[in-house]
């Protein structure tokens, strides 16, 4: 791919801002790890060798316990299976992920009640929540949901927001005026209450939540895009394109949009962290994704309700802090990299 | 729903007692008492107060918010404080909390008419209002007039006292009859009305609601409000020469001199107050309080005692209600399999610290009306397998049962955040049995709406209780397949209808009991209700100078330290010596023996 020299310059500049660059690397690693979380944190074994056959249970359908010589039809409990193999001392073996617990799995003990504190012996590195579910698992799977959620939300919000904003700025006049009023009115609808009302009547699922959030979230981008477009449309290249007979669509999306991209990507990282925070807060209040979907907000809520179980609030607060700081650093670096003035410095 | 079970139950009794008032005037003077009636009384049942009880002391209790009014009818009167006022007002007769027999209150004798809708009463001649005026038959006559009056702005009571109570007949100043509108079983529960003081209210006017907001109405019970400061406190004072203080069932009860309710708006702060001794008793029913929070110096040093008292009262029908209008639950085998797929035992053991008990069926604790032979279906994978296979289902690739493109995946609708850990465990266990539960948490009103509109698969909820089992609303086909009825399982079975109709129409206790047991068996057979938990006890922490009788409470006790209430209240007393001893020990930082009492006198046997 041949990149515009200006773009290359921006990328180089971004790379030269160490803090932001490493943050991006950390963030990408977090995302990649969470996407393959099943291989690291799962109650299914990675690989099972049983009576001469290899099984890879991680992805795919569940394997009933009786296939491995257990006496039940439901999914094999691989932790027990491992113990069994060790006792039997035959050739069978299996390999468990680092954290051998699933995201929904409750690990309860005799005579004690969750939440359980961190224990290396039981492989609950950050302890369990109030239903005996592993916190590492809840955190990582929760992160995956939050990040996917916020990326999709970003895409939807920006598609609508940018399109509307750019059109407002380009056409101006009555269309602009009309949409400005619409947005003003619309942004005065108390978004949180609407969500609360909706989720008390029905449980919003993932798509629904994105849809609701997008309905109230697209306005933010319009103002900026409108202003930028007003400026850009007066430039000569737009005039030139017009003179060549380019259609409005072409001018908007092939000429003006690429020239405003700097503005858009500057905002993007902050929108990502905004999305994560929004989902977390909704879950915290109990209006987000329905249980038992892993979620940071729910963990936060549990941490609040079980103050003495410091590992719950501790884990989730640190995880949030790291994520948000990393995203903010990226955002900062991006902003600086695309800054045409190149004067600002961050130390 | 579940939370208010106990107060509701007492509410029903109390209000039946308290509020029936004067019917129409047609029945005034000159009526002849029938000759063939048999007067009954009851001084034979065991007393439940302690002979050791001493009078004295001030009992400190609290309310979450100051009452909006002292009126017990009309706008804003339905607050929680109303029960404190109502429980200081006796009715014609009461119910013995252990034997459930009728016992005297304002009436010394009573008699039933053959028509099964009239009950006669002879009043105790010593009964006085708190202002010293005698209570006469006319006060009951007036009660009906009062309750039917438009001026009190209480449509529910207007309606109840019109549709349920036909009239009050006065024979002389201390003999009367109360007539219900229809013949019915347990007539005594319906017609045991409370008097209203005509000399106090006189003719009601349009200003009733406003005028009586903060008026202290004369009553017939052991205490009366003596002092209050709006927003801060209400104090009750014991009547020194209460007319009933030496009567068989009231002797040695209502011992404290003063009861002071102060406003404490937060539960956690209340707990702190209690630990400082500003509050005498604290409810520690929640596992967190009983097991964890009470590991605190005042308890460990023995200044505060803990008691776990098992009672034997009507249990809320709490559990999973399967909507039989859903295609999947039309099949008996599937319903049975579902019940066997619910590992309630594990939830009780692993999540609820064995503090809850398995509810065996929907109508436990109704005395002889309960069918104690029924046992809820236990978690059993083999049985799930058997039932599912019998209906031609097969395990799918993910282990969930499948048949003709359908999956055994059902939605559980619930509303309390605290119930999530229970459901999460059930869900994981159900997966083993090949049943997928989808959890849907809505807020309580949305949950209730969804369930009443019969849009649920499974409702996770409990019903409030009443003195006798209510079958018609929950299981009669009249209420099936339509919205806004309590038949949330959509049970539609002609045999069930026949039994329920017979139960409702029967006026013979023995027959009703027999039918009741049959109906419960039928409900169990249908498998549409999976009973979950019951909490057949009360747990409280109290400062050690408060004393309880040898048997600390009664079968019906929901609160061992309830200062008022003719049925179960006022059994405890203040021990001045112990108070001094404790204060002394606290000052000297001396440890006393920690005490945790577990009383199983009335524990239900499973």
In short:
The complex is a heterodimer of chains A (347) and B (606). Chain A has 13 helices and 3 strands.
Task: Tell me about this structure.
The complex is a heterodimer of chains A (347) and B (606). By secondary structure, chain A is mainly alpha-helical. Chain A has 2 domains: 5-36 and 137-337, Orthogonal Bundle (MetI-like fold); 43-96, no CATH class. Chain A has 13 helices and 3 strands. Chain A has a 3-stranded antiparallel β-sheet with strand order 2-1-3, with helices on one face. Chain A is elongated and about 85 Å long. The model of chain A has no long low-confidence stretch (mean pLDDT 89). Helices cover 28% and strands 19% of the residues of chain B. Residues 1-28 of chain B have low confidence and may be disordered. Chain B is of the alpha+beta class. The longest helix of chain B is centred in the last third of the chain and has 18 residues, at 509-526. Chain B has a 5-stranded mixed β-sheet, with helices on both faces. Chain B has a 4-stranded mixed β-sheet with strand order 1-10-9-8, with no helix packed on it. Chain B folds into 3 domains: 13-238, D-Maltodextrin-Binding Protein, domain 2, CATH 3.40.190; 264-312 and 536-599, no CATH class; 318-534, Dipeptide-binding Protein, Domain 3 (Dipeptide-binding Protein, domain 3). The A-B interface holds A 61-62, 64, 72-75, 104-106, 108-109, 113-114, 130-133, 200-203, 286, 290-292, 301 and B 346, 350-351, 353, 381, 385, 395, 397-399, 417, 420-421, 423-425, 427-428, 431-434, 439-443, 445-446.
Itemize the secondary structure elements and their pairings.
The complex is a heterodimer of chains A (347) and B (606).
Chain A: H1 5-16, H2 18-35, H3 37-40, E1 47-50, E2 53-55, H4 78-88, E3 93-95, H5 135-171, H6 173-187, H7 191-201, H8 206-217, H9 219-232, H10 236-243, H11 248-285, H12 296-305, H13 310-337
Antiparallel strand pairs in A: 1-2, 1-3
Helix pairs in contact in A: 1-13, 2-13, 5-6, 5-8, 5-9, 5-11, 9-11, 10-11, 11-12, 11-13, 12-13
Chain B: H1 5-18, E1 58-63, H2 82-86, E2 93-95, E3 102-104, E4 107-112, E5 118-123, H3 137-148, H4 155-163, E6 165-172, E7 175-180, H5 187-191, H6 198-201, H7 208-211, E8 223-229, E9 233-238, E10 258-263, H8 267-276, E11 281-283, H9 287-293, H10 297-300, E12 304-310, E13 318-322, H11 332-341, H12 344-351, E14 357-358, H13 381-390, E15 394-395, E16 401-403, E17 406-407, E18 409-414, H14 420-432, E19 436-441, H15 444-452, E20 458-462, H16 472-475, H17 494-505, H18 509-526, E21 529-531, E22 533-534, E23 537-543, E24 546-547, E25 573-574, H19 576-587, E26 596-599
Parallel strand pairs in B: 1-10, 12-26, 18-19, 18-20
Antiparallel strand pairs in B: 2-3, 4-5, 5-7, 6-7, 8-9, 9-10, 11-23, 12-23, 13-20, 13-21, 14-22, 15-16, 16-17, 24-25
Helix pairs in contact in B: 11-13, 12-14, 17-18
